[in-house]
Specification:
The protein has 446 residues and is α/β, with parallel strands linked by helices. Helices cover 37% and strands 18% of the residues. Strand 11 and strand 12 form a beta hairpin. Helix 6 packs antiparallel against helix 14. It is globular.
Length: 446
Amino acid sequence: MKSTTSRREFIKQASVGAGVVGLSAMGFSAKSYARIIGANDRVRVGIVGFSNRFRSSLFPAFMNHAKAQNFEFVAVSDLWNRRRDEAYAYAKEKAGIELAKYRNNDELFPRTDVDAVIISTADFQHALIAADAVRHGKDVYVEKPLAETLEDAKIVRKAVEETGKILQVGSQRRSAPNYIAANEYIRSGKFGDIKMVDMTWNVNQPGRWRLPELTKEIRQQDTDWDRFLMNRPKVAWNPRFYLEYRLFWPYSSGIFGQWMAHQIDTVHWFTDLPHPRSVVANGGIYQWNDGRTNPDTLTAVMDYGPEGDSKGFQVLYSSRFTNSAGGVKELYFSNAGSLNLDTNEVTAEGGLSQRSAADMGMKENLLEPFTLSNAAKMETSANTGSDPMTSLHMLNWMECVRNRKKPNADVVAGYNHSLANIMGRTAYETGKRVTFDDAKQEVVVS
């Protein structure tokens, strides 16, 4: 007679007789062995927050690989009843899926047959929800920024380290072929030492992060305002804080968490540096005086390099909502030339020419121009829609959940980009130079 016991159940049962020591020898910690996913088991996934980002990008990215990876959506948790109903209708229409609906995560997370969750809630909620999820035995895909405060960042990092669960942060550049090629090229030493990074993210969109019609329609009685606020100060119901949270601190750091988080992550990835040595920042609300508290224009200057070492480089980050000239750019410079991650071209532009070198008895230092890969070219500004980067990033997460491997944008990567954002936000708020004490794990204002 054929056994009906799944591989997952078999391992759980075997652990009782074999003991945790045997499973440790297989590479699983005592706290993570109980939810090992078998090679043929279906991975059942819950949706936490049916956001516009989820609808337009995360859902299609997931469905691109669901059949091949044997993953399926089974449930949705959202505080707003309208979003729960929309998620149910959307999943049924697009994929014939009937989702179980839950009012909050206290209802969803105890389900032992839900293996993983995808989190796309308000920015400030990411870290605490992810920590709660892994402590309930779920693997996690969570949108960036991972955290908006250092306290929250520490909580989620500790939770992942203690549980051994898989957590992938939505820093999708880490899965894009052109960025992977750039990382390999810089690490090869052929580019030379990075001396400057220039990053911009410019739009001219008064409606960016605005939902004026929806804020008129949402009613407090249809959601759970206290749960929404989580560990933020208790304030009176405000539909704009709920739906347009990216415009308001302490629910989002705005430009820092939404856009700089994507781009600064590549600096950490390419160099293995966890955070800036120092940050200064300035900006303000110069155009869109619509009640927002986060700036519509921002410039941050960050010094990177080993602590106590003169070797290093500067990152200039700027973003504005008031004029779109320049668009989204990511430019790396060495003494020998430039790497443009908008065009995916390495050139000798700006490198040390023969004439300038000869004046000082030196030799020219010029990169050999080439394109990273024609096949690797991807849209760097694709932050919404069913973009290729998100699809590849979702696939990486699925494979890591299946094979218990470290994801390419793990909790440490998320902690580090969050730290850069937090340092930047602190520098902007205080108008002072900000550093980080590694020993105490504290932001220092000087």
